[in-house]
Amino acid sequence: MKPILCLDFDGVIHSYTSGWKGADVIPDDVVPGFFEWAEQAARHFELHIFSSRSRQPGGRDAMMLWLAEQRRRWRASSGRTETNDVLTFEFPEEKPPAFLSIDDRGFCFEGTWPDPAELLAFRPWNKRGCLGGGS
Q1: pLDDT, mean over the chain
Q2: Are the beta carbons of 45 and 1 closer than 8 angstroms?
Q3: Which residues contact 94 (CB under 8 A, 6 or more apart)?
Q4: Hey, how many other C-beta atoms are within 10 angstroms of the C-beta on 35?
Q5: Hey, which of 8, 28, 77, 105 has its CA 20 to 30 A from 19?
Q6: Gap between the terminal Cα atoms of the chain
Q7: Other CB atoms closer than 10 Å to residue 26's CB: what's the count?
Q8: How would you classify residue 89: left for phi > 0, otherwise alpha for psi between -120 and 50, otherwise beta?
Q9: Could you give the 3-state DSSP secondary structure of residue 6?
Q10: In a 3-state reduction of DSSP, which class is residue 7?
Q11: How far is residue 53's CA from residue 13's CA, in Å, rounded to a whole number?
């Protein structure tokens, strides 16, 4: 059994450039490089996608359909798989007991409580002025 890697959806997999439109409305494209990365990560982890959409009506179904369509588009535009293994994702309704989580809006607690002003100044990677995540 592989450890669980919990992936946030909006801002991590879904580029989320249009912002929130509803649990079952996903208007933007996948973050570039996701499928290539996911194939490598799936060799080591169970990939679970969990979001604020997960417990809302239609949210999980919308994420599943969107992800399948994005993968189809990726493959049609010369996206190449490195493996013959099927790329699978779990879509739990509740946050799983993950080994690690990847989220664009998270803080890694390392034993020292952060200054609240620093937390208020936080900006996710796609809101820092460039898509590369720089300041």
Answers
A1: 90
A2: no
A3: 50, 54, 55
A4: 19
A5: 77
A6: 39
A7: 23
A8: beta
A9: strand
A10: strand
A11: 13
b/e map 107-130, b = 16+ CB within 10 Å = eeeeeeeeeeeeeeeeeeebeeee
pLDDT digits 0-9 by tens, 35-81: 999 999 999 999 999 999 999 999 999 999 999 999 989 988 876 76
AA letter at 84: N
Six-digit token pair at 77? 């535009």
Residue 104 identity: D
Tokens of 56: 């809302």
* Residue 54 identity (one-letter amino acid): S
Which residue is listed with tokens 């450890």?
Answer: 3
* Token pair belonging to 38: 């996911």
